[in-house]
Structure formats: structure tokens, C-alpha cells
Design a protein that fits this description.
Elements (H helix, E strand, L loop, with lengths): L10 E4 L10 H5 L1 H4 L3 H22 L5 H15 L7 H9 L8 H10 L3 E6 L3 H10 L8 E4 L10 H11 L6 E5 L2 H9 L3 E5 L15 E3 L5 H5 L6
Parallel strand pairs: 1-2, 1-4, 2-3, 4-5, 5-6
Helix pairs in contact: 3-4
Amino acid sequence: MAIKHLNGIQACVFDAYGTLFDFNSAARAASNQLGDDWPRISEIWRQKQLQYTWLRGLAGRHADFWQVTGDALDYALATLRVNRPGLRARLLDLYLHLDCYPEVPETLIRLQAAGLKLAILSNGTPAMLAAVVRHNGLKSLFDAVLSVEEVGVFKPHPAVYALVSDRLQLSPTAICFFSSNAWDAYSAKASGLRVLWCNRFAQAPERIPTTPDGEIDDLSALPSILLPATTR
């Protein structure tokens, strides 16, 4: 997808996990206990975490993202037959202290300095999001941190994306949403937001209706896409 300058954007809204924060950093930080298993555990953990949100949404059996994250971790550890004292508690604590991707702080600072509103829209619970934002020293940069718990259903339900314009009091066309999850980016576009897919993991495009307005490798490209040349 070719990138073009997006005019009229007044707010930038970011998915949290995989977009701002590196979900692999929890298992990586516990590699002294997990050894060579850490990448596979992280992969299964993330896959099941997302699958459980979709299944709960379809079944109408909502549980918050903290429970889902714990359930997915239990599955990952059981799959690889990893059973070490204290490991589960350590990994869950590390999930509250995920590292942000390297370009995130500078990018957010530049966007805020240019007068754009900044927000997070995430499956995470308010407590989870507050912890990871605080850990990375980013609290002062966000005008809003929005959790799906406000509507009681996970992404990609349209009610989640509707939270953004309601809370920021802006038209959806004045808001640009960013996610590394292709299904999330495509779904946000279908809900009327302008969207850039942050394709950190070099994935193939999804075969689902609607396409984002563009694709970027990471968030460092945003100032050149969103800001007038005089403010970059």
C-alpha cells in the first residue's frame, strides 16, 4: 500500500500490545528460566491470547484481558510442558512492565508537540494499561487511555472503535488509528477511522473487507506522513 500524506488528522490513536509495547519482552526477560523455549512460549501465549478474545466475543462470554492473558499463558506453558516454581507469576508481572518499541517515545513527543491529541485504544484492562504506560514513562503524552472494558467486548467489535470519536469529540475522519495487528487495522477502517497498518512483522495483507489508508514498517514514519513540512 502506497503511503501518502494524510491531511486533516487531529488525533492519533494507538493499539497497545505489538504497536506501542513489545509483547515479546516479557518472555525474553525471563529467558534465564525459559532458556531456548522463550520465543515459542511467547508466540503461543500471544496467539492464544488473541484467539480467546475472539472466542469470548463470539460466545458472549466476556472476561477481562488480565484473565484472558493468564489463561493464554497457562495454555502456552502446558503445551511446552514448562512447570517451574514462580514462573507463571513472574511472567504475568513482566507483562505489566513490557518495554515499548525503540522509536515510540520520540515519535509520540513529536506528534504531541505538533498539537495532535494522542490516545491508546486497547483490549487491555485499565490497570494493565496504566502499569505499562507508567513503566515506560509515557503517561504525560496521552490525552486518553481507552480500554474495551468501557463497552464490555473485545476488538474487533464496532463498539470498541466508536469509543474513540466519542471520547475525543472528533469526527472519525479526523482520527488516525495505528495497529500492528492487521485484523485490528482493517476492522478500524471498516468502522470509519482513518488507519495506518504498522506492519512490524512483515505480514501479508489480510483478505478481509476494507483496507487501511497505508502501511508503515514502524511508527517513526508518522511525523513525515501526518505533520506539515514546517513542523516536522
